[in-house]
Design a protein that fits this description.
Shape: globular
Helix content: over 70%
Radius of gyration: 23 Å
Order of helices and strands: HHHHHHHHHHHHHHHHH
Distance between the termini: 55 Å
Structural class: mainly alpha
Number of helices: 17
Oligomer: single chain
Number of strands: 0
Largest sheet: none
Strand content: under 5%
Amino acid sequence: MLAAAAVLFAAMGALAYSGSVVQIPEKASALELVILISLSLGIMSFLFGMITSDYSWVDRLWSTAPVLFAWIYALKADFSPIVLLPVIVVSLWGARLTFNFARRGGYSGMEDYRWPILRKRIGNEWLWQLFNLLFICGFQIGLFILFTSPLAPLSRMSAAVSGSVSDLFTAIPPAGYAALAAMLFFIGLETVADQQQWDFHKAKALSKAAKTPVAGKTTGAGKPREEDAQWLAAYPWKDDISQGFLSSGLFSIIRHPNYLGELGVWWSLYLFSAAVQATLFHWSISGAVLLSVLFVGSTAFTEGITASKYPEYERFQASTPALIPLNLKGGSSAAREDS
């Protein structure tokens, strides 16, 4: 597997130095340039994963590579408002995700906890490296191409739209502006869900530290700082700390509000593109569809791990939908102790 990756990497290097590829940024379409960059990112992520035994390199690209791709589309469109407006919103999405990933330690060597579990379940190093190549690096980076691909037809269209700047803005129909508003709403949803989850894990860690014996005592080094103790005392969802998982706030309405927000952003981008093109279906819908399929599988795998750790989680699953808010009153704290 390492030899195969080395051959691929060498081939990319040879192409990069060939005369034909030197002209690619000028000659290639935005989509072709995005695909070329994605191939390079995939190979590097695969190699770094094998070298470091850390398989979260693609995770570190989730908030940055799609933003880079979006700005390539904007550049190729000469920053036409038809492309620039959604690209700015995508950049806001990327800034939010980058901030949240960074404060959780994602850029400091922290590996996604699911990869070691899955690697152990696979149990064969060759099969694991094949999974790393095809799914972690190949499929996920391919998704970056696909869920940003609604910008590709807009980039091509912008060259054919002439007139003043105001004419370019009016080329976006009301449905397009509604889709942009939906993107902002879903980014806001993700932001609130991320903060609620961050606060919960902070409260959980502080609570654990306060109860952890240190040198035979329950105080001392294990005691939170005064400001942390005050923050913990004011934390409103203490029942969630004892059960081990968050089921209050947005999480009382659906189990994964951040997943809903993520899917909403990319479905809304597709709807924006479709509205500007005055069409309902376009091949670029494949990105939002495949991302939805990925999240369904990821939800099942992640919840299997969570349910094995926390006995109350199955009751939470039974009372609260995963992604679609069917009960806006919410359940919270594992169905409010079965009411």
